[in-house]
Design brief:
The complex is a heterodimer of chains A (293) and B (233). Chain A is an all-alpha fold and 293 residues long. Chain A has a two-stranded antiparallel ribbon with strand order 1-2. Chain A is 72% helix and 3% strand. In chain B, 40% of the residues lie in helices and 27% in strands. Chain B contains eleven helices and ten strands. Classes of the chains: A mainly alpha (293), B alpha/beta (233). At the A-B interface, helix 6 and helix 7 of A face helix 2 and helix 3 of B.
Chain lengths: 293, 233
């Protein structure tokens, strides 16, 4: 009983790390640009397919091909930004959120259907020689592939933090999040900061997608599920604190897995959503967010 | 140095500036005074490119500023301290100052500028590792001005540096502004604190309802009957 519970907890954490990674991407874009890109899940789906095909066609190891997947997503991200999102940079915040959301929904439909046309509705997963390998500790299984997912998520997160804290560009991004007008008065080119943040978000979506394709599977309609999870986690954690967002992701993963353990798989998402509503009502700035000063 | 000609600026359909013209020469400290809502902040925002004028002309050392982006204008050597300071509260004091030297031309001299700013505001050096959000009102204003100086500007635009400060801090702030000007920096000072601003400035413009209604030497304007009755009571 206890072993099964701990096993569940471990899987919850490992899944939650992927929620966290997806959410940090969407939060990165939203925090800086106030673009609510609801096609984030579809970008993640594209990352998953990129990783799958690189493995399937060229026999490239999914972890080694990660830079390629990310590069592919950067290209897609640049195209989407230049075609659509750049037009909404100058809108007032409210309109920006609404319009980008609409564009995001449109994009999500288009990308889903393109994926369906190109790759059919089949579930695709990557099965490597080490896919089922795991080590056991006190009767609890730790699959290597999922542990690698957690590790890569953490690496992404810490490099992002380091970039934001230590580099001039990173500081410019943080300044823009707080006050874009004052940031532009520093001589910061806001358009460049926006593009960069959008691309960082896309790259994170790509990485998350690749990890999903190795640990679970990908299909054309998976995007909305991941967008919703990412949005819930972003609100749970509070905007503007990526560590908090990531921790909130793990929290959601654990909540889901324990709920499934005690109440059955049908209720998997219910408690997570209740938690989400409670946070919205009692702590609208999110669990780790700070109140506006 | 800065020449503003017949500037008309709108907020959507609402005209905020009506044919404003001003000139600021190198080394001067010029004040722009007027009541709340007269268009002082709008004028500054238009100069620095945050607002696009419908018509008119702005040149800075012979270069046209109209249609330039804000970051380009900052690179040319105009630095603005926005109303309320606009400091980045989640960043440390030092990070705020570093961002002041963001433009490539200023980044090279970052350490030098930092020494200069710490000389002017020793308080900032004491607090350099503190989060800017924990600073007092006066310290925030020091940080805002210090940050603007980090870009090594040729022209400094100050929007209400005395706003919300305790009287003793206001006095200190005006002394500092005068001192910076004496060191050779050209300053355009926007103020509601008319008396102090006119006292400090060599020249001043009076703005009302989006129009320039008066211009002259600071102390001359100070003795104007209309200004006395309107602002000084």
């Amino acid at each position: 009983m206890l072993e099964a519970f701990v096993q569940n907890l471990v899987f919850g954490i490992l899944l939650g790390a992927l929620y966290g990674l997806a959410a940090v991407g969407i939060a990165m874009v939203f925090g800086v640009t106030k673009f609510l890109n609801v096609a984030h899940g579809e970008l993640l789906m594209l990352g998953g397919y990129a990783c799958f095909w690189l493995f399937n066609l060229f026999d490239l190891d999914p972890f080694l091909s990660l830079p390629l997947t990310i590069f592919f997503l950067l290209v897609i991200g640049t195209v989407l930004y230049k075609l659509f999102f750049v037009r909404m940079v100058k809108l007032p915040q409210e309109e920006k959120i609404k319009n980008t959301m609409l564009v995001g929904f449109g994009l999500s439909l288009i990308l889903q259907n393109v994926a369906l046309m190109l790759w059919t509705a089949d579930d695709r997963g990557i099965t490597t020689s080490y896919s089922s390998a795991a080590f056991s500790l006190l009767g609890v299984r730790f699959p290597y592939v999922r542990l690698a997912g957690l590790f890569i998520s953490l690496v992404c997160l810490f490099s992002l933090q380091l970039f934001l804290r230590r580099t001039y560009t990173g500081k410019a991004i943080r300044a823009t999040v707080e006050n874009w007008e004052a940031a532009s008065l520093m001589g910061i080119d806001i358009h460049k900061v926006y593009l960069l943040s959008f691309l960082l978000g896309t790259a994170l979506a790509g990485a998350a997608g690749a990890l999903v394709s190795v640990t679970f599977s990908v299909d054309p309609s998976m995007g909305m599920h991941w967008t919703l999870k990412a949005l819930i986690v972003m609100v749970l954690g509070g905007v503007g604190n990526f560590m908090g967002t990531f921790v909130a992701g793990i929290l959601l993963g654990v909540t889901e897995s324990t709920t499934a353990f005690f109440m059955g798989g049908n209720y998997r998402e219910v408690v997570g959503l209740i938690l989400f509503l409670l946070v919205l009502v009692f702590r609208p700035q999110g669990l780790f967010g700070q109140k506006e000063r | 140095m800065l020449k503003v000609e017949a500037l008309n600026t709108y907020y959507n359909d609402l005209q905020a500036l009506w044919g404003i013209s001003m000139e600021i020469n190198a080394g001067e400290l010029v004040a722009l005074v007027g009541p709340n809502g007269a268009g002082k902040t709008t004028a500054l925002k238009t100069i620095v490119g945050l607002l696009k004028p419908a018509s008119g002309n702005i040149t800075f050392n012979g270069e046209k500023l109209i249609n330039e982006t804000v970051h380009k204008i900052v690179e040319l050597g105009i630095s603005q301290v926005p109303e309320g300071g606009g400091i980045f509260t989640g960043l440390s004091v030092l990070e705020n100052l570093e961002l002041g030297a963001f433009v490539p031309g200023a980044r090279k001299f970052k350490d030098e500028s930092l020494k200069w700013v710490y000389e002017i505001f020793p308080r900032l050096e004491e607090r350099k590792d503190q989060q800017a959000g924990t600073l007092s009102g006066g310290e925030r204003q020091m940080l805002a001005i210090g940050r603007a100086l980090m870009s090594k500007p040729k022209l400094l635009l100050l929007d209400e540096p005395s706003f919300g400060l305790a009287p003793i801090m206001v006095q200190h702030m005006f002394e500092v502004i005068g001192e910076i000007n004496k060191q050779g920096l050209t300053v355009l000072l926007v103020e509601q604190n008319v008396h102090a601003a006119l006292d400090l400035a060599q020249r001043a413009y009076v703005i009302e309802n989006g129009r320039i209604v008066g211009e002259g030497k600071g102390d001359t304007l100070l003795s104007f009957e209309s200004i006395r009755s309107a602002y000084l009571g």
